[in-house]
Amino acid sequence: MKNDVLHRLTTARPAHLDPGLPTPPSVRDEELATVMSGPRAPLGARVTARSRLWRPPLLSGLALATAAAVVALVVADTAPEKPAPPSSAASESGARILLAAASHVERQPAASGRYWYVEEHMGSFHKVPGQDYTIDIRSEQRYWTSTDENAYWSQYLDSGARPATKADEVAWRADGSPTSWKLSDAPDGTVTYAGRGEIEHDAPGGKADSGPYGEVPLRLLPTLPTDATALRERLFALVDKDYNGPTRVLDRIVVNSAIELATSLPSSPALRAAAYRLLAAEPGVRSLGDVEDHTGRSGHAVALPSPYASAPELRLIFDKSTGMPLGTETVATRSGDGAREGETLSYTTITSMQWTDEAPPFDTDTPDPGPETPYDR
To answer: What are the helix (H) ranges across the chain?
Structure first.
């Protein structure tokens, strides 16, 4: 049976928004794409106080970008205009980068191990209220996946906040170099320079079992075709089986799934290359040329625009020599909501992605902190 999209959309709508407001069709499509591409809650999972902890939602970069635009568009209740298409030269150049990365990545040796291990450093930029500087609120996620057991371990850490740029650091020092900041959207009202270290970890069999993100079940990875056209058809069939939505929304979930295959799931070199080639065929993909990620590593980058004019743009960064993903960024496509057009809103940097025989360092969940509070809702 297909998922009840209307129910998922209703429960995902922010509580402060009036559900009676008329919503333009384009915004409705955007909401559908966001809700349907988000991670699925495991059956029987209990909501604990972990959800009151303030952290970036663990969604794909494209889902984050779309979600950011939904609130602004629904509040404004205006239909976005379609962005102007990029030049054919820019699109061809972007496709070439992805195709070159595919050629590199499919030549990587196939590896094996008991666990697929990924470590990601994440950050989101926030203007300090009443001050003229921005802080980078940082976190770290580690996860281990056992495809044989279809089991998943995850660990989340608060790495603390820092001034975002050198100019922000100057303004921060002029502000007295504070080591904590009050932000209205933090449940406890404060983020700190030092961070809190590990926030939680989750092992299979505990009360808070989670699953890897992405629409593609791990057990199906070996069965996916490594031809880009066939892969798109197969992903669409999987999405269409699970969801009841317009074709244009299902197409966005297919793209999200391809991004997950390219950047986080334990795809074989051939399957990862096929995902790159699928993305290379996306309308509007464009080259950003040589860039540095947030650890200073050099790479090539491409932009995958959202079909929604006000939604942030997703940027993918690849290693020049191996074609492996280095990370993602979301970038504002218009000024407003505290950001200027072209500003980076958030980023994810992949610092490790490999097969390993080393087991996760824990086999139980973080102790349950107690019953849920109003912050959990």
So the answer is: 5-12, 25-37, 61-76, 88-105, 166-174, 228-242, 247-263, 269-280
For residue 12, is pLDDT > 50?
Answer: no
Cβ-based neighbours of 49, under 8 Å, separated by 6 or more: 368, 369, 370, 371, 372, 373, 376
Q: Which pLDDT score is estimated for 148? A: 77
Pick the closest to residue 345 from 311, 321, 376 (CA basis).
311
Residue spans of alpha helices (H) in 45-197: 61-76, 88-105, 166-174
pTM for the model? 0.75
With 0-12 / 13-18 / 19 or more C-beta atoms within 10 angstroms meaning exposed / middle / buried, residue 223 is exposed
DSSP-derived secondary structure for 221-264:
GGGS-SSHHHHHHHHHHHHHHHB---HHHHHHHHHHHHHHHHHT
Round the average pLDDT of the chain to a whole number and report it. Answer: 77
Token pair for residue 18? 């009036």
Half-sphere exposure (CA, 13 Å, Cβ side) for 90? Answer: 15
CB 123 within 8 A of CB 345: no
pLDDT of residue 367: 82
Hey, what are 193's tokens?
């320079």
